[in-house]
Amino acid sequence: MKGLILSGGKGTRLYPLTYTSAKQLIPVANKPILFRVIESIRDAGIEDIGIVVGDTADEVQEAVGRGGRWDVNITYIRQEHPLGLAHCVKISRDFLGDDRFVMFLGDNVIQGGISPLISEFAGSAWNSQIVLTRIAHPENYGVAELDEEGHIRRLVEKPKEPPSDLALVGIYMFDHHIHEAVDKIAPSQRGELEITDAIQWLVTNGRAVHPYVHRGWWIDTGQPGDMLEANDLVLEELDYKVEGYIDRDSQVGRRVTIQRGAEIINSVVRGPSIIGENSRIINSYVGPFTSIYHDVVVENSEIEHSMVLEHSRIENVGARIQDSLIGRDVNISRSPIKPRALKLTLGDHSKLGIL
After folding, report:
1. Suppose 127 and one of 105, 207, 255, 348 were both cysteines; which one would form an S-S bond, judging by CB atoms 3.0 to 4.6 Å apart?
2. Of 223, 249, 269, the domain-final residue
3. Is residue 338 part of a domain?
4. What are phi and psi of 293, to 5 degrees?
């Protein structure tokens, strides 16, 4: 089998974090989401992986390379315009050939990995397997309706009135018949080739499409709240270890990971949380469900239930920061200049809460 990862979206729902960065490279519990997807596919025994890229292709290629760190072979496939998931399959035909493959959205996080699903599909006569989960708002996703025996009756993309609460979670397995389906369907009203239409074509034309209902958690990290929730869930599953330095005046909980080169000085760090490589926590409090990425400084400040990306500095902040996503190279500090005032430079679509 082969793997196909879709990493071409603009990430508009995560603006301003994704104005200058690929959303798939935002770290959840200090590991980029795309890296987690690659590891999940590799752990299923797949070595040949294609990554569909778009406007952020250069950044993705620089971060991922040729796949050597994961012992896989990476091929990049350029999608010039976002024309749908089925279009991604269409432009990947040369890479995929007639092999079976798993297609995985590069911004999804799922509990438990996909190894059992891959093994099940590889040993079956199914032409496709799709992963479903029950969610509160299925109208935002492709939705499956099953019959009394659990077989697929129909699939619809983002319906105003969903026929069920079973949403497609962005993990699909196909054999070569999907290429015929992609060639047969027409663009939707959005002007895209919808993967739900292609799967529906398989069902309508008698191909065996097996629905698997996922019982664990799954997060589509498309919005800031989703990103924080994914971070929470992954932090709770970490194997906690201390590779950095903790001085004798600090208190660090047992569910805290301190990565190589990090320093905790006269501070309190409570887990689950993670402090990235070469970051420094000085005279500060880091509360539960917080990820501090690499080369960050937190000094004389308090933060919890937040994510801070690389090369940022949080210094002398009087109020506790919480429920926040803080991007790369951000400086947050209390100004000594009088008269006291808030001086802000905020990107488009930013949200700011002030006490």
Report:
1. 207
2. 223
3. no
4. -80, -165
Residue 278, sorted as left (phi over 0), alpha (psi -120 to 50) or beta, turns out to be left
Q: Report the C-alpha gap between 5 and 24 in whole angstroms.
A: 11
Q: Is the pLDDT of residue 118 over 70?
A: yes
* pTM, two decimal places: 0.87
Does residue 164 register a pLDDT over 80? Answer: yes
Would you say residue 355 lies in a domain? no
- 49-53, 64-68, 139-143, 151-155: least confident range: 139-143
Reported confidence tier of residue 317, pLDDT bands at 50, 70, 90: confident
Reported for 346-350, long-range contacts at CB under 8 A and 24+ positions apart, including other chains, are 346/16, 347/15, 347/16, 347/19, 348/15, 348/16, 348/19, 349/15, 349/16, 350/16
Domain span at residue 320? 238-333
What confidence score (pLDDT) does residue 11 get?
A: 46
- 173 lies in the same domain as 312: no
CA angle 187, 189, 192 (to 5 degrees): 40
